[in-house]
Amino acid sequence: MGRALVERFPTARALFERASEILGYDLAELCSAGSEEKLSATEFSQPALFVTGIAAARVWQAENPEQAARVTAAAGLSLGEYTAVCFAGGLTFEDTLRLVQRRGLAMQAAADAVQSGMASILGLELAEIEKLCEENRGENEILQPANLLCPGNIAVSGHLTAIDRLEQQTKGNLKLIRLNVAGAFHTPLMQPAVAKLREALQEMPLGDCKLPVYSNVDSAPHTQADEIRELLSRQVVSPVRWEDSIRRMIADGVGSFLEAGTGRVLRGTLKRIDRKLFSQGFGDEADGFGNTTH
User: Fold this and answer.
1) Which of 50, 110, 159, 160 has CA atoms 20 to 30 A from the CA of 135?
2) 8 Å CB contact between 213 and 74
3) Which of 78, 116, 215, 245 is catalytic?
């Protein structure tokens, strides 16, 4: 992750080097050669994803100045929303990284306190998934939709015992994929992280954004610092309304999208939401730079 960016672009290399100074470990080495177990830990995965994403975005800006000048909005899924706020000018790179590091530590601590996780369910509508969660949620357990990505792709989050029960009930009837994450993100099980995150957000000099950032919490565009600070603190315990955010962006006139970072998951969700959308990826080693997906 991020290796091609670091090898090909001095801008990206400088960001990774600066990140390593702040974090106290070699982030580029961790991203390109670190163990899957270590990278799966929230305290490491969140800085890695943020720096890779913002490095790809900054390189794309430098390589495509005319296109970059026409960007009208930003959005990011879960941790990616911090990248979007940084890209939109609400936070500096350094302050965003420090905030993301503290977020990762707080969420890791909350995850370590209870056996929990997440799983993607493919092919069902939200109402059907809510019913399955209700049927498999034991007393004092949490199991609920957490990432509302696109039609037919919703992730649930909660206690592992409830996810185990759901997996057994639906075995052979639908596709359930366990996610390699530390805990039940975007549920009340992350509540212990909220106070620490609020404190970190208050300490960071977050300013108004130059571009509207569409929030995971309410799917609406925001530029005011106070609003964004409050929404980011609520995000860790609220479902990610990604499909609603994309549909709101389309309704507001956004007609093309660029995914900056590693992988092609978000481009895949765009195709499921509206196949007419034009989407472009930058920063994905497996797919090249600037390749387009329809």
Assistant:
1) 110
2) yes
3) 78
Dump pLDDT digits (tens) for 68-124: 999 999 999 999 999 999 999 999 999 999 999 999 999 999 999 999 999 999 999
Q: If residue 284 lies in a helix (H) or strand (E), which one and from where to where?
A: none
- Catalytic annotation on 294? no
Of the residues 157, 159, 186, 222, which is catalytic? 186
Quote the CA–CA distance of 53 and 47 in Å, as a whole number: 10
For the purposes of burial, counting CB atoms within 10 Å of the CB of 22, is it exposed (0-12), middle (13-18) or buried (19 or more)?
middle
pTM (2 decimals)? 0.91
The model's pLDDT over 184-198, given as tens digits with 9 standing for 90+, comes to 999 999 999 999 999
The partner residues of 233 in beta bridges, in order of sequence, read none
User: What amino acid occupies position 209?
Assistant: C
Query: Residue 63 corresponds to which amino acid?
Result: E
Active site residue 186: yes
**Are the C-beta atoms of 252 and 73 separated by less than 8 Å?**
yes
